[in-house]
Amino acid sequence: MIKKFKKKYNKVRNIVRKETRARAASKQQHIAKSVKDNPKVFWKFVNSKTKTKKAIGDLHILDSTEKDTIITSDQEKANVFSEYFASVFTDEPLVNIPILKNIMPENSLSNIQFTTDHISKELNKLNINKSCGPDNIHPRVLKEPSPVICDT
Predict the structure, then answer these.
(1) Which of these, 124, 138, 129, 144, lies nearest to 36 by C-alpha position?
(2) Is the pLDDT of residue 52 over 70?
(3) What is the pLDDT of residue 36?
(4) Is-contact 123 137, C-beta < 8 A?
(5) What is the C-alpha to C-alpha distance for residues 99 and 139, in angstroms, rounded to an integer?
(6) Whole-structure pTM over 0.70, yes or no?
(7) How far apart are CA 79 and CA 61, in angstroms?
């Protein structure tokens, strides 16, 4: 009698397991397809799969007396890494740096004109889900006030 129930239980369990795995795979496919349009959903999924939320675990270092010390606070960890990187990188003298002449090329563009329509079009192309560029200005800061900036 018990074998009969166990067999029935195993069949139902396997059906449920198959269905949950299929749904999970479907959800992952959906996330993968929408990664370009909505990267936040992708990163939320990735972060949910990490085992620990701590970025850097406790550090075990040897202090000046060769005693093992455990560093737990973020500020102390930052100081330890800062000291280490400062000791590894070399400090070169600024004596032999060449001075470059400020010479414009002969075929340089001397007259460039921008229209507000062109600027507005380029600002609207910005993806607000991307990080800052080399100017350290977030795309959202430029895109959202573009109607005011371009007076359109």
Answers:
(1) 129
(2) no
(3) 86
(4) no
(5) 35
(6) no
(7) 12
**Burial of 142 (C-beta count, 10 Å sphere; 0-12/13-18/19+):** middle
pLDDT tens for 90-118 read 777 788 888 878 777 777 777 788 888 88
3-state SS track over the chain: CHHHHHHHHHHHHHHHHHHHHHHHHHHHHHHHHCCCCCHHHHHHHHHHCCCCCCCCCCEEEECCCCCEEEECCHHHHHHHHHHHHHHHCCCCCCCCCCCCCCCCCCCCCCCCCCCHHHHHHHHHCCCCCCCCCCCCCCHHHHHCCHHHHCCC
Contact 128, 143 (CB under 8 A): yes
Q: How deeply is 119 buried, as exposed, middle or buried, from its count of CB atoms within 10 A (0-12, 13-18, 19+)?
A: middle
CA atoms of 140 and 122, how far apart (whole Å): 13
> Residue 54 has what pLDDT?
62
Q: Which residue has the tokens 């507005």?
A: 120
Q: What is the pLDDT of residue 91?
A: 75
The length of the chain in residues reads 152
